[in-house]
Amino acid sequence: MKRWLAMAALLSAGLAQAACGPDALGTSRSLTLKREGAAWGKAQHAALPTLQPGEIVLTFDDGPRPESTPAVLKALADHCVLATFFVNGEPLRLHPALARQMRDAGHTLGMHGFRHDHFSQLWSVSQIADLDAMTAAYREVLGAEPASWRFPFLEETPAMRAALRERGVTVMSIDAGAEDWLPDQTPQMLADKLLGQLTRSGGGIVLLHDAQDQTARAMPFLLQTLKAKGYRVVHLRWE
């Protein structure tokens, strides 16, 4: 069943890609990772393996949020781009249909903490309890085993790193972003900040937030800008 769903998603993505015009950013290839307790992203770890200069992985945190996530999904669909969404457990349970819509569009979903807490400020037992709650919500809504995790605020802790390694869950940090959680930013401001960080990193894992209204509004412009600058999107999957 899981293999059939994966094939169906790939077929759907392929048909959508064919329907997009030459001005679309597109998804250049998929990268399938093993289910293991690895950690990637040059902000804290090694570079994601096999990524070439100019290749980027688009990732979004903090959703699903009905007020903004659908606009992000539409912009991605218009550009035939597949991304990875690191969702929180509370909104995942509140908006299960939207989360399944994200999955059914071919995007990959990972975990981002049940309540988006500062894990560095929690006792170890509370950190593991949050992981358990997040995992249960993921299984309940998506009917699958989660393979990836991004720490809220990128605040890694020894207790969580050990638990994620034991469970074979990959930690995803970042290589570049637009700092789109800061208020009152225009699409041009977000694009300039993202391009500046990508110039320094050479590409890699991009952090954005689908729960931000300003990010949702800026997505068409951001994708057009990435296309104009020659960046190529790589979509992550796990075996």
TrEMBL record:
Q: Which Pfam family is one of those matched by this entry?
A: Polysacc_deac_1
Q: Which residues form the NodB homology domain?
A: 54-234
Q: Which keywords are on file for this protein?
A: Hydrolase, Metal-binding, Signal
> Is Hydrolase included in the keywords of this UniProt record?
yes
Record flagged with keyword RNA-binding: no
By its UniProt entry, which CDD domains does this protein fall under? CE4_NodB_like_6s_7s
Entries under InterPro entries matching the protein: Glyco_hydro/deAcase_b/a-brl, NODB_dom, Polysacc_deacetylase_ArnD
**Family matches, as PROSITE patterns:** NODB
Name-wise, this protein is Peptidoglycan/xylan/chitin deacetylase (PgdA/CDA1 family)
- Highest taxon of the lineage: Bacteria
- The stretch of residues making up the signal peptide is 1-18
